[in-house]
Structure formats: structure tokens, C-alpha cells
Amino acid sequence: MTGQYGPNRGMANLSPRQDRMFNNLDKNNNGTIDRQEAQGNPSLSRHFDAADTYGNQAITPSEFAAFEAHEQESGNNQGYGPMSGQSEPPREQQSPTSGGNQ
Q1: Distance between CA atoms of 77 and 70, rounded to whole angstroms?
Q2: Is this structure's pTM higher than 0.90?
Q3: Rounded CA separation 45/39 (Å)
Q4: For the chain, percent helix, then strand, then coil, each to nearest 5?
Q5: Residue-level pLDDT at 76
Q6: How many distinct structural domains can be found in the chain?
Q7: Is there a contact between 18 and 72 (Cβ–Cβ < 8 Å)?
Q8: Rounded CA gap, 80 and 37, in Å?
Q9: Residue 8 belongs to a domain
Q10: Residue 42: which domain range?
Q11: What residues are paired with 86 via a beta bridge?
């Protein structure tokens, strides 16, 4: 079975940010991200089968790069989470008048 990221799976150039993300997810340092390791990235975990274009139950750097490219193109890459260095999305600032009688 090939996933929807198949056409890009030969791409292996990770940005420095993507390289950090990949290495942080690859807890056993074997050069791939397995299904359990992917749980550290909610989007990758949800789309693991589609990202695993080789169908070997592991995400390679090239598969990860293709997945990340797809996420950015589709606007799903939020830029926050445990791998980005930001623990949560920016909070909206409330004005002093919000929440009161107007």
C-alpha cells in the first residue's frame, strides 16, 4: 500500500527544523520513526499510514520530509507542539473589556 505522499517520497532534504523534529521523534536512534514514536507528533500519528509510503511501518527521513511538505502546503503545520520548541499555540490576548458587561 502506498500513501498519498508517494510522489514525494524520494525527497530527503530536511530543513534544520525538520531534522530536529525527526531526531526528537526517533527515540531509539535507528533512523526511522515507528508508529509508537510517531505519537509524539499528533498529526503524524493520525496520518502515519499515509506518510508511510514504503509500507514498512516506519517513517524514513524522506517520507517525513514529504509529509511535512504536504502539511505546510495544506496549512496543517501549526508550528507548535513538543517538537517545535513551543509548547502550545499563542494565546489570544483579551482586552480589558472582554468578558464583562458591555
Answers
A1: 9
A2: no
A3: 5
A4: 40, 5, 55
A5: 64
A6: 1
A7: no
A8: 18
A9: no
A10: 16-74
A11: 81
| C-alpha cell of residue 73 | 502546503
- H-run or E-run covering 66: helix 61-74
Cell of 68: 511535512
- Percent of all residues in the chain with a pLDDT value above 70, rounded to a whole number: 62
The distance in angstroms from the start CA to the end CA of the chain is 57
Q: Is residue 86 part of a domain?
A: no
Q: pLDDT tens digit string along 6-36?
A: 444 455 678 898 899 999 999 999 999 999 9
DSSP 81: B
Q: Collapsing DSSP states into helix, strand and coil, what is residue 79?
A: coil
With beta carbons less than 8 A apart as the criterion, state whether 44 and 35 touch: no
